[in-house]
Amino acid sequence: MAWRQKFAAMNSEKFFLDPSQDTDVAWARRKEFILATLKMFRMTLDAVRRHSEWIETRHGISAVELWALWELSQSPGLRAVDLAKAMAMPRASLESLLQGLVQRGLVKQNADTESATPTYITSFDGQRIADASPQFGQGVLKAAMGNLPDASLIKLVEAMSDLVQQLPFREERAALQPMADLLRPGGQAPAATAGNDSLPLIF
Fold first, then answer.
1. How many helices (H) and strands (E) does the chain have?
2. Can you tell me the distance from the alpha carbon of 18 to that of 26, in angstroms, rounded to the nearest whole number?
3. Would strands 107-110 and 119-122 be described as parallel, antiparallel, or unpaired?
4. Element (H or E) spanning 125, and its range?
5. Can you give the pLDDT at residue 202?
6. Lowest-confidence region among 19-28, 57-66, 146-155, 165-174
7. pLDDT score at 187
8. Rounded to whole angstroms, how far apart are CA atoms 86 and 17?
9. Contact, 193 vs 97, CB < 8 A?
10. pLDDT at residue 2 greater than cutoff 80
11. What is the Cα–Cα distance from 79 to 82, expressed in whole angstroms?
């Protein structure tokens, strides 16, 4: 048919189609790959959401607060700027998060007499929460990526980079927001993180 010849000719202009395959086969395989990838994205986001809800229910804190406690439990005495780098967050946002944890008695601020820059450590209660989630304290997605071999991680970074470049409504600053917050309506952090009425602490 003429339309088959037309679409076959178009294959050579579309770098994402295999020119050695029949047009119908190439489009069918492409659709299959897209749907399979979409399903995996859904599973990934659902896992992040479920983990975040589990943390809030069990410990009365947000997933990003648990991550901060986990980082401090691994490296006591971090400065806010160091913790911000470790968690890929703006320093101002991280300092606000730390102050909330200090007010709730989960983190202690050490005022170093030789430096104007304070450092932070977990309190007894904060350490108990961090110890209760040793495997996924840094988040299920980051933990899962940490389990990937180097070759797979490199391929993932390259593929995600290509995908992000194709995204409409892309917002660069979203790269510095916690995943669990982005999944909330409006991309807002929970009230407990902002220092409002918080959930009871459960260890």
1. 9, 3
2. 6
3. antiparallel
4. helix 124-132
5. 38
6. 19-28
7. 52
8. 39
9. yes
10. no
11. 5
